[in-house]
Each structure stands twice: as structure tokens, then as C-alpha cells.
Design a protein that fits this description.
alpha+beta, 360 residues, 8 helices, 23% helix, four-stranded mixed beta sheet
Length: 360
């Protein structure tokens, strides 16, 4: 038993060191031990309520769908104009034309317009949708703070178009088959946002789909190119103005553990939860609770891209096992589907059978 405990300590310490080296991090010393549990980030930085202009939008069957119609026209209810939805968004309209919209209401009517629910199902844990919920919450506050359409009487106002996120009031009411999924995703991630370690939200860009690897935005360290090996075999649907940040169909693939978002492709060796999906697509970020300012995910997290753990391992030998965390542009030891997969060799001290993380 003592040898097994020692093995586990060596195993996870090796994984932690590997992840830190691959990620370009520094190992904690007595001088920087505080970095393991950094001080809480700023609290109460999310915009709630949000301040939103609700415009008539370009319909889905036209070019630039979801953008503001030209010339811009604000919605009046009742109406059948696309983008206006079935109801005003909650509160009375301000004299300048914008609405104060509770964040919860806003997100419930963003998610159905930004994710393909037909592809998400079945996903009983709604992991891809949870990832999108954190992203949508992050985007709403970052855009409000950094790129509002207007600042009116001190209020940072966004709008309901693709310039920000497609927000159509009342959409949630028309998705009766998916309301439980939406509620689960929002409740499980309530108050959570992405931060690059500066106590603020990030520009959590997202897009529909990617083939093999995402793009990058050189101006933002967290929007770097990442390999997406699960998105190399199934037909991808590449569209949109950019390819950096989170691939929505890629997130669905990882949540399902399948090379095709609709589940018709080959099974992948691992599945990811929403936290793993987020730290995969956004480099070096933390998931922060806005109420406490504390990190939701640990610093020493790592994602499995593939695994090859033998069920029986003999003492005195070394085994090539799974990737602790992979980064692009690092030495290659193996490839899957044309994408780089990193492997690390773990020395086995003394054990005949071991189980790690449910994989035996």
C-alpha cells in the first residue's frame, strides 16, 4: 500500500511538472508559494443588469443574418420583425431607447440563438452548453465594458445583434424541449466568467466550427492557435468572420466524446466537461466566481487528448502514457488525425495493477 501511495504521488507530481513546463509556467518555490493560491480577483464586475438596444435584425435567410438592419430601426411590439421577438425584454424602455435587462433573462434568450440545440442533444450534463453559458456571460460584460455601442448617462449600452451576441426576447419560451438544458447550464455556472488573471473579463470570442486548429488574435494572449484533433475527421461547417476562441461544434464534440457533433462519427477516447473545454480553447485563463472572486478550476488542471494506460504495470519499467496537457508548437511524439498529441513517460516504482482517474 505504501508503494502504491508513493506511486500516486510521483505520478501526479510528474503530471503537474509536465503541465507547468508545457504551459510555460514556473514551479512554485518557497519564494513564490503564494502563487498556488493567489488572492481572489475583483468581485462584482459582471454587468447585471445589462443595457441593451433591441433592433430589427437581418433574417436568417439573408446575407449577414443577425446583423442590424440598414437603416437601423428599434423594435416596437407587437411585431413579426426578426430580432424583436415575442415580447419587450422585461423592463420599460429608457427615454434614450435602451432596455435594462436582467443578466439571467438576457442569457436565457441568447443561448438558443447562439447554439445548435439539435446537435447538443443528447448531452445529459449539458457540458457544451455550460461552456457556452460561461462564454456568453463573459462576452456580455467584456463588450459592455470595452466595446459598447454607446455610453448613455453613464450606462454602457450594447445591442441585440451579432456585433455582440444575438439576443431575441422571448426565444426561451419557444424552446420548451430545451428549457431544462438551458436552466441547467446557467444554474451550474451562475456568476462564472473567464479572466486572464487581471481581475477582469476577457474577449471570449467564439465561432461555429473549425478544421484541425483554431486561429489566433495576436493582440490577445488567450486567443492563440490551439490544435483541435477531435475536429479533424468529421465534416466541419466553417463559416464566420474569424476562427479564434471557442469552436462551438468543437465544444459539442468534446462534450460528447465523438468526432461528429451529431454523434454519428467515431468515438473519441475521452470526454471533457465544460471547464476542460474552456481552458482548451482559451489559453491561460481562469474561471472566476464573480461573487467570491475565487477560481472555480484549479491551477494544476490538465486535459486528456488521448490515453494509453495499460491495466497492469510492472515495477522497474517505464510506460508511455497519456498527455497531461498539450500545447501547440511543441515537440511531437505521436500524431492523431494530423494533430499533435503530447505524451509523457512515467517511471513505475512498484505496482502490479493501478487505477488512475477511473481509467484502469
Amino acid at each position: 500500500m505504501r508503494h502504491k501511495k508513493l506511486l500516486l504521488v510521483v505520478f501526479f507530481l510528474t503530471l503537474f511538472i509536465f503541465q507547468q513546463v508545457q504551459a510555460g509556467g514556473t514551479m512554485p518555490t518557497m519564494g513564490n508559494l503564494h502563487q498556488l493560491n493567489a488572492s481572489p480577483a475583483s468581485v462584482g464586475i459582471l454587468y447585471d443588469p445589462l443595457y441593451v438596444y433591441v433592433y430589427k435584425l437581418v433574417p436568417p435567410d439573408q446575407i449577414n443574418s443577425g446583423s442590424v438592419q440598414i437603416p437601423p430601426a428599434q423594435c416596437e411590439w407587437p411585431t413579426n420583425d426578426y430580432g424583436c421577438g415575442s415580447e419587450p425584454p422585461g423592463s420599460l424602455r429608457e427615454p434614450e431607447g435602451f432596455f435594462r435587462v436582467a443578466e439571467d433573462y438576457y442569457l436565457r434568450n441568447v443561448l438558443p440563438n447562439e447554439m445548435n440545440f439539435a446537435e447538443i442533444a443528447p448531452d445529459p450534463n449539458a457540458e457544451a452548453l455550460k461552456a457556452q453559458a460561461v462564454v456568453a456571460r463573459t462576452v456580455a460584460s467584456w463588450k459592455s465594458a470595452q466595446q459598447p455601442e454607446a455610453i448613455v448617462r453613464g450606462f454602457n449600452v450594447i445591442n441585440n445583434s451579432t456585433q455582440f451576441q444575438v439576443f431575441i426576447p422571448g426565444t426561451y419560451n419557444t424552446y420548451s424541449n430545451y428549457q431544462t438544458d438551458i436552466d441547467t447550464a446557467l444554474n451550474a455556472t451562475q456568476g462564472q466568467y473567464l479572466s486572464a488573471g487581471d481581475g477582469h473579463t476577457i474577449d471570449a470570442e467564439f465561432f461555429a466550427d473549425v478544421a484541425s486548429a483554431t486561429g489566433s488574435d495576436p493582440s490577445k494572449s488567450y486567443l492563440t492557435t490551439v490544435q483541435d484533433p477531435i475536429s479533424t475527421s468529421c465534416i466541419v461547417s466553417v463559416a464566420g468572420s474569424h476562427d479564434y476562441g471557442m469552436s462551438q461544434r468543437g465544444a459539442i464534440r468534446w462534450a460528447k466524446g465523438n468526432e461528429c457533433p451529431d454523434g454519428t462519427g467515431a468515438a473519441w477516447p475521452v470526454k471533457w466537461n465544460h471547464q476542460q473545454i474552456l481552458v482548451h480553447y482559451y489559453t491561460g485563463v481562469d474561471i472566476i466566481d464573480d461573487v467570491t472572486g475565487n477560481k472555480v478550476a484549479p491551477d494544476d488542471r490538465w486535459n486528456l487528448l488521448n490515453h494509453q494506460i495499460p491495466s497492469v504495470m510492472d515495477s522497474g519499467l517505464s510506460y508511455s502514457t497519456f498527455a497531461a496537457h498539450y500545447q501547440p508548437n511543441t515537440p511531437t511524439t505521436r500524431q492523431k488525425g494530423g494533430a499533435v498529441v503530447q505524451f509523457v513517460t512515467i517511471p513505475i516504482l512498484e505496482v502490479q495493477h493501478a487505477t488512475f482517474g477511473g481509467i484502469s
